[in-house]
Amino acid sequence: MRIGMYFSAITYCALAALVSSTSVAQSYPAKPIRIIAPFPPGGGIDASARITAQALAESFGQQVIVDKRAGAGGRIGAELAAKAPPDGYTRLMGSSGPNAVIPAVQPKLSYAVSDFTPVSLVAISDFLLVAHPSLPVNSVKDLIALARSNPAKLDFGSTGNLGGPHLAAELFKILAKVEMVHVAYKGGGPQITALISGEISLTFASLPAALGHVKASRLRALGVSGSKRNSALPTTHAPCASATCRPLSSIIANAGCSTPSAAPSGHSTRSRAGLRARSRCARQYRAALACGGRIIARCRSSLLSRTA
Q1: Which residue spans within 148-227 are E strands per DSSP?
Q2: Do 152 and 191 belong together in one domain?
């Protein structure tokens, strides 16, 4: 009798826990969700965070806030996200810099790659090699010739140390056998602003961050990092991946959404499904193509492969 009552109690508790967890999952989200953008306004990560916030808000019917926490090449925002309560209400809109490169070369960080669980790869785009209009170059070939004749006289900007634009430019220097001076900024917005003002000579920037300024003739595009012409620049600006710089064809800007690793997996699954559904929205798809990028919503393994 007691044994029967004992197992009945266990069964009851198990069912109660199952019902409770199902109820919690169905009621999620019960409050606003925060997406931490570790770079300032005006760059690709900021744009991706805003697009994702809109997609999740429409999918969940709940407010989604973009919390801008820029600095240290994305490290400040990543540290904040890693320390956030693992309740499924905090997301990090990261990139290869704070999510992979910085932890790999700076092992004494207060966070590690394992502190995050990828939710989805959100967007990708080529890098655009852009110069200030006063620089007497119109192509990658012209730039290489000018840099070789003026070693360490040209300066290039980046979104911060070890970010995508920094690594792209350093690879370009090695491949083209040129010397240029690196100037680090706190994100894509300040990087582009500095180039427009003439504070620096050139930079690699994500297409969404630079394309509008190119079309307005505030910047001059010399080439794209991909292996073929980008649909946003169909007739001009050939790829940087010439025989000299072919490895640049594999360099892309990416934005990925992740959550603290201890957060409930069901919440990430719902977020991924919502992003996947909204990525097919014609309005958002057209907006992404217009600025030279692609909105996508891939699974966790895709994001891991992009940041590895």
Answers
A1: 155-158, 181-184, 202-206, 220-224
A2: yes
